[in-house]
Amino acid sequence: MSVKFPSTKITNASSKVDNYLNVIYELKNEIEEKGVEMELLEDIDSWRTCLDEIELVIKSQYKSNENKFETDNENNELIIY
Known about the structure:
By secondary structure, the chain is mainly α. The protein has one domain (6-79). 68% of the residues lie in helices and 7% in strands. The protein is elongated and about 70 Å long. 0% of the residues are buried. The model has no long low-confidence stretch (mean pLDDT 82).
């Protein structure tokens, strides 16, 4: 039994997205049906929204880690660099 960490799952899912986006990119000039084009545009819009949310979460976590203060555990003094 192998243990999968969230970071491993994210990396695996990200590589799958890369592969499928590459397929879509290579086939984009072969789309002939107008309905398929419109569906793809709707999908792209929903992907963009999802990517914006992921980016916001990552940036907010990075900024919150950047703003943490370090304390001296013995004296509980605040150390500011």
